[in-house]
Amino acid sequence: MRLKGIEIVGFKSFAKKSALSFDAPVTAVVGPNGSGKSNVVEAFRFVLGEQSMKSMRGKSGADLIFRGGSNAPKLSRAHVSITFDNSDKVFSLPISENEKGGAPMLFDTISFTREIFADGTSKYLLNGTEIRLKQMIELLSSVNIGASGHHIISQGEADGILRANTKDRREILEDALGLKIYHYRIKESESKLAKTQETLKEVQSLRRELAPHLNFLKKQVEKIEKGKVIRDELQGALLRFLSIEKAHLAKEDQRLREAFSFIENKKADLEKEFANLPSQNQVSENNFDIEIQKTKTFLSENLEKRRELEQKIGRLEGKIEAHRSLSKNQSVSSNSGAHISFAPTEYKQILSDIEYFIASVRTATSIEAIKADLEKVSLIIEKLKDRNPQEVVNVEKSVDLPDIRETVLELEALQKDLLVIVSKEQDLQKSLQALENQRNDALRNSATSTEARYRLTSEIKQCESELQILAVSKSAFAERKERFDEEIKEAGFLFGPTFLHSIHASDAEEGLDMHDLKRSIDRLKIRLEEHSGIGNDVVSEYESTKDRDAFLTKEMIDIEASIKNLETLIIDLKKVLDERFTKGVEVINERFGDFFKTMFGGGSAFLSITMEKKRKSKSSLEDFDPELVEGENTEPEGFERGIEVHVNLPSKKVKELGMLSGGERSLVSIALLFAISQVNPPPFLVLDETDAALDEANSRRYGDMVERLSEYSQLIVVTHNRETMSRAGVLFGVTLGSDGGSKLLSIKFDEAVKVAK
């Protein structure tokens, strides 16, 4: 949230529309004395809801409107508008009184306007819509504006916090710390406590007045003669009826309980069995086909490698066998004719491969697998076709035999590789068989689980249906039981608890007609009412008076509890107030010490909490319950807190405020006010010539402090001090025009430096 600008029209010396925009962290307002600089500060006070004319240097609302000049007429009204950037939606209205947070304002820009008329009446607007002052103050309070005056520090007010007494300083700090709400709640609770105590006295007085009349009615009721014969007859009939009904209800209740227990236990067992079933995932052959197909692919690749290796081994074995034959007989003879020659193991391997792929086709589960196996058989046949038959003729000659040791070594290496491939083939065959077994087991388990699931679901639904039927029976039983309880209650009212005890102790008579007995009871009740006569009025009045006395007794108990709660609340609020005040002073002391060192180049300063005697008030804690007060209140009885300021100037032994010079007091007060403003930093601070009493060196320190503060809040500084001006990003000059009204001139400080250079 950022302050965008302020617009002044007809307010004090600003006859015409004048606008100030605040785009820089520090904005300075400068001008000669009497030009209207301070009117800018008062415009801030005015638009933020200030009600004290004295704070705005006026006696009435008309004093705030431009009175005219040599060339300008007098105006009848004035208004000031202040605009905030609310793009982060920090403005909010409280949902209920005394609660923080609330509904955020959704406007990207919030503009408050206060318009005043010559008769002193004011009008407040939010983005052009009229609102109440209370609503505007609540909105401003949500961003730490308006709840206290610490965000606007005018000339002469800076030293006010040092001149104030300890109690006023405490109130200033409480205001800045946002603790006023606790004082309001304490005051409100004390007011409620006083009213509640008065109410308690009134209730006690009413009870004392009611007691004699209640005693009289009680004696009259005891003397009233009832129809003894009718009463005794009614009592006997009721005893028989209620005893039988009690027995019937007990049996029905037991039957329903046992039925409910049996069905619910059965349902629980079924649900437990259902929960223990394996997860209902649909199992099909496709779940294992991918792994099986992968295994077959690996097996086929392994077979291909094995076949190639065996062919190489066959050729080497043939070569060795040929060498062996040549060594035995230099002449090799064979029958002439065309034929295909194979190595000793090559022919067996080809037959084995063809048999394997034929078996794989028979067990295949998909067309794609059959096609793949047939394709591999075709490859074997194609390789056989590629081997041309050779014509062997009789050869008889003597040849030199080559050395075949390398061939033997190569054959041994290939045979070792063949063993590895054969072992891998066996492992793959085992994996394939295991996957197929798992697939078959999963299919069988899935079928069994599905069948059990359907069976258990059906039985559970049957249990639920039976429970619904029992629920209907239970509802009918409840209605019958309710009627029985009403009868018991009425019987207890007529004949007392002894009669009720006799109902529970007596046994039910069998064979009686319940409908006839009930009709007889109803007739007896009517006759008893007819014979009651005037006694009923006395009984009714007695019961009414008794209820009234019971109500007053309960009210008295509730009021006494409310008094204790209010006393406890007041003590708790004061405890929270003291704790937060103490913590707030600690935070202020940290900032105060830093700012003090910045202003004086060293030294130290801090605030201390003092205890001072105060006058006893009606709401003093000595009126409270001593048990509640003891150990809870952090302030001694009859004392109140105050704030004392302690300073220790560098290179001086001055520690008393009264011994400080005017400039030193100004520096101390500025450091303290700046520290207070940083506890709940407002979005902007207005400083009206707070640096007027500073020399050049202190002005530089003041400027350093201004720059530090600008990191937390926007600063609007009204000043004559050049050092302070140099820290501003924008300068607004205020001057008097020919019509006697104030005018504004603005320039960005960076641009002014460029122009000067």
Can you characterise this structure?
With 757 residues, the chain is an alpha+beta fold. Among the domains are: 122 residues; 164 residues. It has 18 helices and 20 strands. The strands form six sheets. Strands 2-1-4-7-8-9 form a six-stranded antiparallel sheet. It is flat.
Gyration radius over CA: 53 Å
Contiguous helical run count: 18
List the quaternary state of the chains: single chain
Characterize the main sheet. 6 strands, antiparallel
Secondary structure topology:
Elements: E1 2-9, E2 18-21, E3 26-30, H1 37-47, E4 77-85, E5 92-94, E6 102-104, E7 109-117, E8 122-126, E9 129-131, H2 133-141, E10 152-153, H3 160-163, H4 166-176, H5 180-223, H6 228-276, H7 286-328, E11 331-332, E12 337-339, H8 346-363, H9 367-386, E13 390-392, E14 395-396, H10 405-495, H11 497-505, H12 514-532, H13 535-600, E15 604-613, H14 626-629, E16 639-648, H15 662-677, E17 684-688, H16 696-709, E18 714-718, H17 722-726, E19 730-736, E20 742-748, H18 749-756
Parallel strand pairs: 3-18, 3-19, 10-17, 17-18
Antiparallel strand pairs: 1-2, 1-4, 4-7, 5-6, 7-8, 8-9, 11-14, 12-13, 15-16, 19-20
